[in-house]
C-alpha cells in the first residue's frame, strides 16, 4: 500500500529536469532535518523542501563528522593505522580492522594462522549482531517505540561484555591486527557467549511480538521507502537493503572470505523492499548470526598461533602493490582499497562504506513524496553510519 | 493486519514483573574484564626507557621524560614514558611493543580528577591505586611486534678451523643482514653506551635501505676502524641493547662489519675523504704508537688539514690490533685496509722507528706543535712464581707478536697458559693451531684464577677454545714452574677458593691441599700487560704527573705537560673502541689548542 501523493500540489520541472520551486510562492517550505535532530541518523542532515507535510525534494548534507581518516593513514606507519581504522564506524568497527588487516597481509605476504581466521569471523558476527541490535532500537524509536531500543540496548550490552573479555575493549576493540588477532578466547568464553546468545534470542522473540507483530508499525512501514530491485545495482545498493528487495547479494557467500566457506548459511532474502521488509531481513539476519556464532564456537580450533610472525613493525615496509578487500557488514559491502609504494606508509587507503551510497544518492531518491513524519523511519531503514561516509 | 497485530504489542507489559537489568552500583560492582585495556601500569625497575612505546604511539600520547629518582646508566636512558590521556586511545600498541614487558594496562577504567593536567602522568612514578592491579591487558605470550630471533652467524666448524688461522666468522650475507637489521628498534641505548657513540640505529637503517655508502659515511663519522671493530669490538653496545631483554641483542658488531664488507676499498677511501681540508694548516703533530688511539687521532687531525707523523716501533702499524689479536679473529689485510684509509688522509706512518732509540722525544717536541703518547701495553706481566724466570716461561703478548711476525718457532706438545682473559684465550687458541699443524694434536692447558662463570674472557671465546681442544681449568692459582735439569716440565697449581676479599680487593685465597701438576714444555703468562715508559727520559718522567704507574690525564687526554697528550691502553684501556674514542677526543682537544695560535715554523 504505497503512499499516494496528490500530484496537483507538485511543482513543475524546468527544462534541465530540476524542480521549479518558487519559495516565495508560500507553497513550499525549506526545512532542515539535522545535523542536530533526534530523527537523523548520526551527524548528517537532510535539507527538505516540503509542501504541506509532503517532501518534494531532499538534499543530503554530510561532512559534519569528517576527520580525514584516509589522509591520516597516509602519515602513519602500517601498524599505527591499525588503531585508527576502527573509528571509521563506531557501532560495528571490526570490519575496518578486518579489511585493513587483510589488505596489509595480502600486500605484505603474511600468512594468517587458521585459528586467527576463525576468531576474526567470530568477532565480525558479534559485531554484526551489535549493529543490528542498535538498528532495531533506532528503527522502532523513529516511529516512537522507545521500549525496543531499551531491550536491544540491554542485550547489546551483554554482547559488549563478551567483546570486553575477548578483546579488552567494548566499543573500539582494536583486536584484529595485521597478522592475526591479539589473543585467543578467554576461559569460559563459550558458556558466557551461549548465555548471551540465548538472551538475545529471547529478546528478539519479544521484539518480534511487540515491534513486528504490531498494527502501528506495519501501518507506518509497509510500503514506505520502496526500492525497485531494478535500481539496486544502479545505485550500488548492497547488504540487507538489497536483500530485502529480493536481490540475494551477500559477500559472505558471493566472494567468500575468512572461514565462511566452511560455515552453513544462506543469505536472508525479503520480498517487499520497503522499510518493514528491511527491518525483517535484518532481524532474521541477526538470528542467522547467532547461529553462525554457535557454528564457529563448535568448530574452531582451540590451539595454535593467532598471529603470523611479524617483521619489526617500527619500520615495516611493504612493497609496491594495490588490493581491494571486501566483506559483508551489517549495512552491506564494506571494502578497503589499499595502495602501497614500498615505503613504510600506505600510499592511499580508500574506504568503501555502504552508508555512502545508501544515505546520499539513494535517500535523495526515496525521500521524494515521503510524508515528513516518515522521513526519520525511512532514513533509519537505510541503516546509515555517517563516519563511513566521511572517512 | 490481524487481531494479533493489535494484541501482541501488549506483551511488552510482562516486563513490568521482571527485575531491572541495570547494575545498581556500576562504579563498584563492575570491574573491567581481566584483559581490559584500562589505565597504564609501568614497572619502572624493569623499564629501560628505550622509548619504543613513544615511537609506536600513533597519537603522540607518550613522551619520554627524565625522572628525578632514576639515574641514566648503560642500558637505561633514565627516561620513563609519560602518558597523556587527552591523546591516548588505549590501543595498547605501547604494551605490545614494550621491549621489557614493563608496560601493561590495568583493568581500572574510572578516574575522576578536578585537575585536567593530572591526566598527563608517568605510570609507576606518579603512584596510582591501580599500580598493583593484577588484572588488565598484558602482552600475550609470543605476541611480538619487533621481529624475529637473531640471525645466526655462519662460522667455520671446529674441525675446519682448529689448525688454521683463516678467519672464523663468515659475515652476514645481504639477506641475513637485512633480517638482523630489521630487528633493531632504533632506541639508541647502544649509542649512549658506545665509548665513541657510533650512530648505531642510523647505520643499521642503511642496511635495511640497502644504502651501504651512507652506512660507511656514518661509520667514518665516529670510527675509522670499522673493519677492526666490525670483527673484534667488545661490543658493549650489545649489552645495553633493548632487544636483549627478550632474546639476543642485535648483532651490532656483525652489522657494522657487513656494511664495510659491501663497499669497495676505493669507494670507502673516497667517502672517508669527504669534507677533508686539503689546505695544510701548518700545525704539526707527532704521534707515538700506531695503535687505534694514535691512528684515530691521526685520521681526525690529518682530515682537518694538520700535518701528522706517526712513529711506530714495530714493523707494521696497528699496535695490539695487529700484534695482539690473532689472525683468525682479525685478518691482517682487513686491518691494512683501515690503516690505508687513514694513510690516504695524508698521515705519515714511520714504522720501525722506536722513540728513544731512533729519535728522541725531545726531538719530537722540537719538530712538532703537539705530541700524542699512545704506546699501548706491550710488556707482559709476570706471575713471579718460582721458576718463572726460565726461558720457556714467556709472556703472551711477546708470543703473539712473534706469531704475527710469522716466526716459525716450534711449539712443544704440552703448553700451559696462565690467565683467564681474552689474551689468554688468544694465545691458547693460536698455540693449539700451531700444535695441530706441527704435531697433529693439541696439548694446551689453560688455568684461570677465576671460577668458570667469572672468567674475564668472552663466553664465546671460552666455548670456541674448548671446541678447538684447549683444556680450560678454572679456579686454579699458579704455584711454581717445575724444572728438571734446566728443562721446563710442568706447572704446579693450587685450587683458588676466592679471588677477591670482602672489600672487593684482589686477594686470592688458596686451598694449598689441592695441588695439580700440568705437563708443560712451555708456559705462557697472560695475566696482564704493562707499558714501557723508559723512553720518556728522566726529566720528562719527573715532570709528568702519575697515577698508579700511569700518566695522569684530564678528560681531554692532556697530560700535565701542555704539549703532550696521552691515550690508549697505556693510560686508559681496555679495548679498541675506547682507544678510538680517546683518539677523537684528543684530536678535538689538540685542534682546540691550535685554534687562535699560529703554527710554529719547523
From TrEMBL, chain A:
Residues 150-391 form the NADH-quinone oxidoreductase subunit D domain. GO terms for molecular function: NAD binding; oxidoreductase activity, acting on NAD(P)H; quinone binding. Keywords: NAD, Quinone, Translocase, Transport. Gene3D superfamilies: Cytochrome-c3 Hydrogenase, chain B (1.10.645.10). The keyword Cell division does not apply. InterPro entries: NADH_Q_OxRdtase_suD (IPR001135), NADH_UbQ_OxRdtase_49kDa_CS (IPR014029), NDH1_su_D/H (IPR022885), NiFe-Hase_large (IPR029014). GO terms for cellular component: plasma membrane. SUPFAM superfamilies: HydB/Nqo4-like. It is found in: Cell membrane. It is a peripheral membrane protein. Belongs to the complex I 49 kDa subunit family. NDH-1 shuttles electrons from NADH, via FMN and iron-sulfur (Fe-S) centers, to quinones in the respiratory chain. The immediate electron acceptor for the enzyme in this species is believed to be ubiquinone. Couples the redox reaction to proton translocation (for every two electrons transferred, four hydrogen ions are translocated across the cytoplasmic membrane), and thus conserves the redox energy in a proton gradient. This is NADH dehydrogenase subunit D.
TrEMBL record, chain B:
InterPro entries: 4Fe4S_Fe-S-bd, 4Fe4S_Fe_S_CS, DPD_II, FAD/NAD-bd_sf, FAD/NAD-binding_dom, Helical_ferredxn. Keywords: Iron, Iron-sulfur, Metal-binding. PROSITE patterns: 4FE4S_FER_1, 4FE4S_FER_2. One of its GO terms (molecular function) is metal ion binding. SUPFAM superfamilies: 4Fe-4S ferredoxins (SSF54862), alpha-helical ferredoxin (SSF46548), Nucleotide-binding domain (SSF51971). It comes from the Bacteria. Residues 38-67, 79-108, 175-204 form the 4Fe-4S ferredoxin-type domain. The keyword Isomerase does not apply. Signal peptide: none annotated. This is Oxidoreductase. It comes from Lamprobacter modestohalophilus.
Amino acid at each position: 500500500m504505497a503512499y499516494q501523493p496528490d500530484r496537483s500540489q507538485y511543482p513543475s520541472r524546468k527544462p534541465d529536469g530540476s524542480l521549479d520551486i518558487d519559495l516565495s510562492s508560500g507553497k513550499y517550505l525549506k526545512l532542515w532535518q539535522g545535523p542536530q535532530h533526534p530523527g537523523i541518523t548520526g551527524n548528517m542532515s537532510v535539507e527538505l523542501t516540503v509542501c504541506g507535510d509532503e517532501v518534494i525534494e531532499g538534499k543530503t548534507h554530510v561532512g559534519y563528522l569528517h576527520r580525514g581518516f584516509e589522509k591520516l593513514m597516509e602519515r602513519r606507519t602500517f601498524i599505527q593505522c591499525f588503531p585508527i581504522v576502527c573509528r571509521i564506524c563506531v557501532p560495528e568497527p571490526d570490519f575496518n580492522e578486518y579489511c585493513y588487516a587483510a589488505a596489509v597481509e595480502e600486500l605484505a605476504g603474511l600468512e594468517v594462522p587458521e585459528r586467527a581466521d576463525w576468531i576474526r569471523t567470530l568477532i565480525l558476527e558479534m559485531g554484526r549482531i551489535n549493529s543490528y541490535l542498535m538498528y532495531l532500537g533506532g528503527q522502532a524509536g523513529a516511529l516512537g517505540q522507545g521500549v525496543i531500543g531499551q531491550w536491544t540496548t540491554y542485550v547489546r550490552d551483554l554482547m559488549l561484555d563478551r567483546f570486553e573479555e575477548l578483546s579488552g575493549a567494548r566499543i573500539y576493540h582494536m583486536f584484529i591486527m595485521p597478522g592475526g588477532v591479539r589473543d585467543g578466547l578467554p576461559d569460559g568464553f563459550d558458556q558466557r557467549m551461549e548465555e548471551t546468545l540465548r538472551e538475545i534470542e529471547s529478546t528478539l522473540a519479544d521484539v518480534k511480538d511487540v515491534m513486528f507483530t504490531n498494527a502501528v508499525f506495519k501501518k507506518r512501514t509497509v510500503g514506505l521507502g520502496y526500492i525497485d530491485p531494478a535500481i539496486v545495482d544502479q545505485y550500488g545498493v548492497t547488504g540487507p537493503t538489497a536483500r530485502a528487495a529480493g536481490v540475494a547479494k551477500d559477500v559472505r557467500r558471493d566472494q567468500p572470505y575468512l572461514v565462511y566457506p566452511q560455515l552453513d548459511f544462506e543469505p536472508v532474502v525479503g520480498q517487499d523492499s520497503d522499510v518493514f521488509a528491511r527491518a525483517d531481513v535484518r532481524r532474521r539476519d541477526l538470528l542467522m548470526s547467532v547461529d553462525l556464532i554457535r557454528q564457529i564456537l563448535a568448530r574452531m580450533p582451540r590451539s595454535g598461533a593467532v598471529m603470523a610472525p611479524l617483521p619489526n613493525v617500527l619500520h615495516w615496509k611493504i612493497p609496491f602493490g594495490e588490493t581491494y578487500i571486501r566483506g559483508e557488514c551489517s549495512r552491506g559491502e564494506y571494502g578497503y582499497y589499499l595502495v602501497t609504494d614500498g615505503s613504510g606508509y600506505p600510499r592511499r587507503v580508500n574506504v568503501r562504506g555502504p552508508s555512502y551510497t545508501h544515505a546520499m544518492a539513494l535517500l535523495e531518491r526515496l525521500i521524494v513524496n515521503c510524508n515528513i513524519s516518515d522521513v526519520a523511519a525511512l532514513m533509519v531503514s537505510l541503516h546509515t553510519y555517517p563516519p563511513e561516509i566521511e572517512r | 493486519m490481524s487481531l494479533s497485530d493489535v494484541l501482541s504489542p501488549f506483551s511488552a507489559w510482562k516486563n513490568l514483573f521482571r527485575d531491572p537489568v541495570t547494575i545498581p552500583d556500576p562504579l563498584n560492582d563492575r570491574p573491567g574484564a581481566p584483559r581490559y585495556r584500562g589505565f597504564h601500569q609501568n614497572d619502572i625497575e624493569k623499564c629501560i626507557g628505550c622509548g619504543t612505546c613513544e615511537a609506536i604511539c600513533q597519537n603522540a600520547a607518550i613522551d619520554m621524560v627524565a625522572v628525578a629518582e632514576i639515574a641514566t646508566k648503560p642500558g637505561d636512558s633514565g627516561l620513563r614514558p609519560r602518558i597523556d590521556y587527552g591523546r591516548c586511545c588505549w590501543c595498547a600498541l605501547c604494551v605490545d611493543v614494550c621491549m621489557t614487558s614493563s608496560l601493561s594496562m590495568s583493568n581500572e577504567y574510572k578516574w575522576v580528577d578536578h585537575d585536567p593536567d593530572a591526566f598527563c602522568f608517568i605510570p609507576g612514578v606518579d603512584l596510582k591505586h591501580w599500580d598493583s592491579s593484577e588484572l588488565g591487558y598484558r602482552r600475550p605470550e609470543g605476541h611480538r611486534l619487533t621481529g624475529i630471533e637473531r640471525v645466526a652467524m655462519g662460522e667455520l666448524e671446529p674441525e675446519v678451523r682448529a689448525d688454521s688461522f683463516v678467519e672464523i666468522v663468515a659475515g652476514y650475507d645481504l639477506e641475513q643482514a637485512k633480517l638482523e637489521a630489521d630487528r633493531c628498534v632504533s632506541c639508541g641505548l647502544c649509542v649512549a653506551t658506545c665509548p665513541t657513540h657510533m650512530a648505531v640505529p642510523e647505520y643499521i637503517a642503511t642496511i635495511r635501505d640497502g644504502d651501504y655508502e651512507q652506512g660507511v659515511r656514518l661509520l667514518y663519522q665516529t670510527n675509522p676502524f670499522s673493519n677492526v671493530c666490525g670483527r673484534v669490538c667488545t661490543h658493549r653496545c650489545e649489552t645495553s641493547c633493548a632487544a636483549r631483554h627478550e632474546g639476543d641483542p642485535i648483532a651490532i658488531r656483525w652489522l657494522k662489519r657487513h656494511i664495510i664488507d659491501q663497499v669497495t676499498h676505493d669507494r670507502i677511501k673516497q667517502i672517508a675523504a669527504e669534507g677533508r681540508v686539503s689546505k695544510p694548516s701548518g700545525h704539526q703533530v707527532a704521534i707515538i704508537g700506531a695503535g687505534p688511539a694514535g691512528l684515530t687521532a691521526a685520521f681526525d687531525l690529518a682530515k682537518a688539514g694538520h700535518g701528522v707523523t706517526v712513529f711506530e716501533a714495530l714493523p707494521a702499524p696497528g699496535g695490539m690490533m695487529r700484534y695482539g689479536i690473532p689472525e683468525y679473529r682479525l685478518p691482517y689485510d682487513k686491518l691494512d685496509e683501515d690503516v690505508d684509509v687513514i694513510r690516504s688522509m695524508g698521515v705519515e706512518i714511520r714504522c720501525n722507528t722506536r722513540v728513544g732509540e731512533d729519535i728522541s722525544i725531545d726531538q719530537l717536541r722540537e719538530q712538532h706543535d703537539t705530541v700524542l703518547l699512545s704506546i699501548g701495553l706491550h710488556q707482559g706481566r709476570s706471575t713471579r712464581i718460582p721458576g718463572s724466570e726460565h726461558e720457556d716461561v714467556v709472556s703472551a703478548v711477546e708470543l703473539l707478536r712473534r706469531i704475527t711476525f710469522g716466526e716459525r718457532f716450534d711449539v712443544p706438545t704440552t703448553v700451559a697458559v696462565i690467565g683467564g682473559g681474552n689474551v689468554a684465550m688468544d694465545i691458547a687458541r693460536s698455540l693449539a693451531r700451531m700444535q695441530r699443524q706441527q704435531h697433529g694434536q693439541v696439548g694446551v692447558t689453560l688455568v684461570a684464577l677465576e671460577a668458570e662463570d667469572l672468567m674475564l674472557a668472552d663466553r664465546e671465546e671460552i666455548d670456541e677454545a674448548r671446541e678447538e681442544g684447549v683444556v680450560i681449568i678454572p679456579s686454579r692459582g699458579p704455584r711454581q714452574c717445575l724444572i728438571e735439569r734446566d728443562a721446563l716440565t710442568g706447572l704446579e697449581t693450587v685450587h683458588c677458593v676466592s679471588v677477591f676479599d670482602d672489600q672487593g680487593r684482589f686477594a686470592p685465597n688458596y686451598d694449598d691441599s689441592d695441588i695439580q701438576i700440568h705437563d708443560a714444555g712451555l708456559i705462557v703468562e697472560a695475566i696482564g700487560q704493562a707499558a714501557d715508559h723508559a723512553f720518556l727520559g728522566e726529566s720528562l718522567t719527573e715532570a709528568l704527573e702519575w697515577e698508579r704507574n700511569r700518566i695522569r690525564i684530564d678528560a681531554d687526554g692532556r697530560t700535565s705537560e701542555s704539549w703532550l697528550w696521552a691515550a690508549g691502553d697505556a693510560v686508559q684501556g681496555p679495548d679498541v673502541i675506547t682507544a678510538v674514542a680517546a683518539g677523537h677526543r684528543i684530536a678535538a682537544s689538540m685542534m682546540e689548542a691550535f685554534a687562535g695560535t699560529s703554527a710554529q715554523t719547523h
